[in-house]
Amino acid sequence: MNNGKRETSGGQRLKGTLAEGSTDLPLVTVVTAVFNGQSCLAGCLESVLAQDYPRIEHIIMDGGSTDGTLDILHRYNDRIALWKSEPDKGVYDAWNKALNLARGEWICFLGADDLYLPGAIGAYVALARKYPGAEFLSSRAKLDHSTGYSPTFGGPWLWPRFATAMTTVHVGAMHHKNMFARLGRFDSTYRIAGDYELMLRAKDTLKSAFTPLTTVVMRAGGLSDSTAGLYEAKRAKIAAGVCSAPLATVQLQRAVMRFHLRRLYLKARSLF
């Protein structure tokens, strides 16, 4: 009995109705952190529900939204594994909370404004079977601009390149649970580059695999589409000891220049 108070958690797991599916296939946990995401969350949820892979649990961590996000979560209550709504310290704090709840052998992080393309999870599981022992699986992503221009990007994880910049697509990528046992949790003092910082800890020991398929659509905009992430990446590289502060500063200057050149290109393209 809730005495008129709205539930701040739910899902099939709490109701005891979550179907396990075939145990011959690995369980995949998809984690979504959201705050005031009423304009996009339903699309994200539908993209996960539309996957043809049978063993997925979707965990949604809401940071205490004040818009219609809770209405959406209640509407999907019988179709998602678990959701919680409580204040957090940002996306990486929310991800860490979800990691403590995740039951999957593989774990993915999908933004509330991002979408999986059909067959994405199945393609990742097939990649995992092809490369046993891999702990990080990535793909290509489509960046959806409001101008209608939607380039794809993303390449394989290669340490010499990754040590200088986030050159692989993290959105929707799969991480084996053992990766977190080895590297620890996300540093919640970061706002944008916490995923980069975590993977830098592995240095050249990360076991990875890549598929050239495009598995996810990222919507352009927000904090990740700003120079703020580049400044956090500089901090992460220095903290991980992968380069000196002067070298990290030079790399930052080059990255900021490339960022602004890309913005100018996209603006010019939208005019034609």
Automatic annotation (TrEMBL):
The organism sits in which domain of life? Bacteria
The chain positions of domain Glycosyltransferase 2-like read: 29-151
Stored SUPFAM superfamilies: Nucleotide-diphospho-sugar transferases
UniProt protein name: Glycosyltransferase 2-like domain-containing protein
The source organism is: Granulicella aggregans
